[in-house]
Prior knowledge:
alpha/beta; Spore Coat Polysaccharide Biosynthesis Protein SpsA, Chain A; 2 domains; 7-stranded mixed sheet; 3-stranded mixed sheet
Amino acid sequence: MDLSILIPAYNQSCLELVRSLQQLCRAEGASYEIVVADDGSTDETARRENASVGELEGCRAIMQPQNCGRAATRNLLVRESRGDHLLFIDSDARVVSQAFIASYLQMLPTEAVVCGGIVHADELPDESVSLRWRYEKSCEPQFTAGQRSTHPYQCLRTFNILLPRNVALAYPFDERVRNYGYEDVLLGRALEQAGIEVRHIDNPLLNYDLEDNAAFLEKTRESMRTLQSAETELRGYSSLLRIYDRMRRFQLTRPLAALYQMFHSAAERNLLGPNPSIRLLQLYKLCYYCDIKRKGCRV
């Protein structure tokens, strides 16, 4: 089998995504399977629709009875896969090019890990998601294939990524990371240490289902806690850690932690509003990280 398309899902229906991918695979005459793993969704509609994926030709659904975490679910999908190459796609993705599957198929077989990229809507979908949308749009110029290729391992994102199955089995996702953030960076680190090539191409998917501002801000804090718990492994792979280490050398981490305590309520009013400042978000993340480091918080 050429290709296993693997979609981890939690409280997100994959049915429309699977149908579009199925259509593209059929158009290319590919030998394929599509496997969805529902990680104990509590949204009954999403869970029901994800289960119905198993009724489609060439598709399977794995319905986990309880939430096992992002990394564990991805590793389960790897073990359950049958293809020689595995294409991981996040459940909130949408196909934007009819050549999406063909672009990957023409690269097979390959021993490299291939990152296709991610794009976002040109117009703000709704004011309620302005923080995530503005953040992602501010990052897009740095995440063309050319820009990503300058730091291939640090820029690895599992939203849309192709791996040889033997590589995915040999270098599984770190299951210590049960919360949001950095599981893809940890994978990039493992691949670099193993000398596995990571190649970046422009074959993006659209991230269409953005969290509202409050949810994204909480996920941002959660990612900072994940970063702290894996700080040793992530040093050299996180721009925020580089800044933190510089602040520590100048003995500025305690003042920044104190600044968080003083200004976080005012900052959050801006970040949760209709016109959030991305520069303020970056300062907020650094100050929050300094604060949890000072407190010795754990995930």
